[in-house]
Design goal:
This protein is an alpha/beta fold and about 220 residues long. It is built from seven helices and six strands, in the order H-E-H-E-H-E-H-E-H-E-E-H-H. Strands 1, 2, 3, 4, 5 and 6 form a six-stranded parallel β-sheet that branches. Helix 2 crosses helix 7 (about 210-220). The protein is globular and about 45 Å long. The termini are far apart. The site of flavin mononucleotide has 27 residues, from helix 1, helix 2, helix 3 and strand 4.
């Protein structure tokens, strides 16, 4: 038990160090839950709530989602947010399921994730991709992993064309806000309109669900939903 606690403590310290490094490197102003809308290019795309909405997300399924709890949560943090978005927008959910599951324990998952990031890997997706052609607005959400979308989300982004649509990033993380999600989407799809994104702290999703849902609904109201 003592050994498990020690290992868990070491992992938390490593993660906090990674978050700190990422935050200082990016010098992003992420003191509020939503991102700034400045410097976004205006593309001729219909408003978010006109037409169909797709809510794409990845969320760790295997075990503990909250890094503060050494026990599994029944539903991942980002999956919970995706559900809230789908409920409020009437959108369709699509979960990105990796062909190869991640390990159950946090430490090994973080090692695998770090390797995938270093190698700029594109892990395979298990389930068929959605036909995105009929959607006007696509939300793309995930936990922040080492400041970035998990690489399996990059696999998804490489495989579908979201140009000409509204795209909305959302994230759960423990200190990195939306990570680099905005810039990933803008550079991947230069002819899409990247709308104001939103993040919630993973720990809050697990512990303060109703206030998190109010935050999410307020953000979506601001997008016109
Ligand atoms: C491999 C890995 C890397 C992570 N990297 C970061 C990070 O860079 N910044 C951060 O704030 N949180 C980081 N986290 C914490 C998760 O983003 C956070 O706990 C999230 O809410 C988990 O969401 P999920 O339950 O949907 O998988 C990381 C977690 C894992 C497993």
């Amino acid at each position: 038990m003592k050994v498990r606690i020690t290992i868990f403590g070491v992992v938390i310290i490593a993660l906090v160090a990674a978050i700190f490094t990422f935050n200082s490197r990016n010098q992003r102003n992420q003191s509020t839950t939503t991102t700034s809308t400045q410097n976004r290019s205006s593309k001729p795309v219909k408003s978010a709530n006109s037409g169909k909405t797709l809510v794409v997300y990845f969320s760790r399924r295997e075990a503990a989602s909250s890094i503060y709890k050494d026990k599994p949560l029944p539903i991942g943090n980002t999956k919970r947010i995706a559900g809230m978005i789908a409920k409020k927008t009437g959108g369709t959910e699509y979960e990105i399921i990796p062909a190869k599951s991640y390990p159950r324990d946090f430490k090994t998952t973080s090692e695998v994730a770090q390797r995938e990031l270093d190698e700029n890997a594109r892990p395979k997706i298990k389930n068929p991709l959605p036909d995105v052609s009929g959607y006007n607005t696509v939300f793309v959400g995930a936990p922040v992993w080492w400041g970035d979308y998990p690489m399996v989300v990059h696999t998804f982004l490489d495989a579908v064309d979201l140009n000409g649509k509204n795209i909305v990033p959302f994230a759960t993380s423990e200190g990195s806000g939306l990570g680099n999600f905005d810039s990933v989407l803008s550079s991947q799809y230069p002819n899409a309109k990247v709308l104001e994104g939103h993040f919630e702290r993973g720990k809050d999703v697990a512990d303060r669900r109703s206030s998190v849902e109010s935050n999410v609904n307020r953000w979506l109201n601001g997008l016109g939903y």
